[in-house]
Design a protein that fits this description.
Length: 298
């Protein structure tokens, strides 16, 4: 009797196992499904890259040819517009200002948000309320707090300075939550071992959590870099001296000065976009790994 039960249970297990396996389509149905997925991906790629291609095409076209009949292909390309923007504008000064401001914001986010994220991995009274408060703070746009931020910046004597532009962006709720999620995946045994060896809390953060959270750190670096590099409203409020303006303010002035010169404007946009592309290319492996790890978490 036990032998019969064993055979029946084995058959049931085999049937359940087969039902859980993905069905392998064959023939024309499988080929049509694969072709449909490929075609859908191709259309999505074209829709995504065509505006970028059009931007590059106009930037490589002389101003005299822009008014003619438009063409999909790049005809008679020239880097004259890029050379004109590079030498006849103050893009180098603006680039240096944006780079300094962005570096301050990125470093501030990585360090300060790591402290807050580390505290969220500990158990303390009111932790749940603090997490709810952080999530609620994400619903408040920065524009609603721009007047208090301006008053605080003025009291600190940081108006019309690069530090004054970067200071409000050195802490971000989204980055805190990303780092806190990554820090929670670090085994507690490693933290306990570090404490037993006499490690300080700073060493635990930078010597234990950081090496094991590189994908999350790369993600936060990319996000903070893009946010600060593209920020327009806050520098417009804080900066009054032309020598301290970042690139977004310079682009707005460049567009108003050369209204109608689309080739020069597009060349300017491409030049100020290159650092963001380079930043992503340098950290794309860690960024993709961070997304994969987030998808695998239960």
């Amino acid at each position: 009797m036990s032998r019969i039960n064993e055979i029946v249970s084995t058959a049931d297990a085999r049937r359940i196992y087969d039902s859980l396996q993905p069905r392998q389509d064959s023939g024309w149905n499988y080929r049509l499904r694969k072709f449909g997925m490929f075609l859908l991906g191709l259309l999505a790629a074209i829709a995504f890259f065509f505006p970028l291609y059009w931007l590059i095409m106009i930037a490589l076209t002389s101003q005299a040819l822009i008014g003619r009949e438009p063409s999909i292909l790049i005809t008679d390309p020239s880097i004259f517009n890029f050379v004109t923007v590079w030498y006849q504008s103050d893009i180098l000064v603006l680039f240096a200002n944006s780079l300094i401001i962005t570096i301050i914001a990125v470093v501030g986010n990585l360090v300060l948000c790591s402290f807050i994220a580390y505290s969220l991995t500990r158990d303390f009274h009111g932790k749940r309320g603090l997490e709810i408060l952080l999530v609620a703070a994400m619903l408040v746009p920065f524009q609603t707090s721009i007047i208090p931020a301006f008053l605080v910046t003025r009291e600190l004597g940081l108006l019309n300075s690069r530090l004054g532009v970067a200071l409000p962006f050195t802490v971000s709720v989204i980055i805190i939550l990303i780092l806190a999620s990554a820090f929670r995946s670090v085994p507690q045994s490693l933290v306990d071992s570090a404490r037993m060896d006499g490690a300080s809390e700073l060493y635990i953060i930078f010597g234990v959590f950081w090496p094991l959270s590189r994908p999350a750190l790369a993600t936060t670096a990319i996000l903070s870099f893009v946010w600060m590099w593209n920020e327009y409203m806050w520098p417009l409020v804080v900066i009054s001296s032309p020598s301290n303006r970042p690139l977004p303010l310079g682009l707005a002035e460049f567009q108003s000065t050369l209204a109608g010169e689309f080739a020069l404007q597009y060349a300017y946009v491409i030049l100020i976009t290159l650092p963001v592309i380079v930043m992503f290319l340098l950290l794309q492996r860690q960024f993709i790994r961070s997304i994969a790890q987030s998808a695998l978490k239960e």
